[in-house]
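<goal> How does this chain fold?
<body> The protein record starts here
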Amino acid sequence: ELSKLSIEGCSQPQSKIGADARAISESPQYVRYKSVRMETPNLQKPDFPFFFCIDKADKNMMSFYLKNDYNFYTFDEYDAEKYGISLTQQFYFDINVNNNKKESDMFFIGEDKDRFNQLKTLIDYSKRYNLKCDINMLPDSNTIIDSSYSDIYIKEYIPYEEILNKISNTNSIIDITKENQSGLTLRVMEAIFFNKKLITNNT
């Protein structure tokens, strides 16, 4: 069952992600809520104040907020069991985007995190069948830049408003989950709410 939330007073800790992004694509992904109006009765009601992690939990970041008496929630069953934090459903914002230009066939946004080889396979496939890929990968500390695919690398995080425009203008969203990740990611929710096809390794 999907959950739609109307959120007031939503903010994020200052970090390497853009302060103007309500929900960005990669870690650290923590959203702090001052007030939430639940539209789905079965969604677990949080205890305030709380943080909801919309990606894999980061132990250091999580420890900081738990020590400061914030209740911590995750959609990932593996993380909930590993760290002893509360498990709840994934959610998505009720956002309207009017653009619909179909500028790409496949869209990806995210950090490398050992995803390059899988993305490379999709890029090569798209070239073979004359499909247009919009791949935006942020290198991490383990990334070895491949000059043959230099156009996929980005230097900084993209504001979520821009990401939504790219999602609106694509036919499908690429969702590559990390090892030991479970549950519905933000990419899945975007595909559902924006009526896009989903290319994923999430089983």
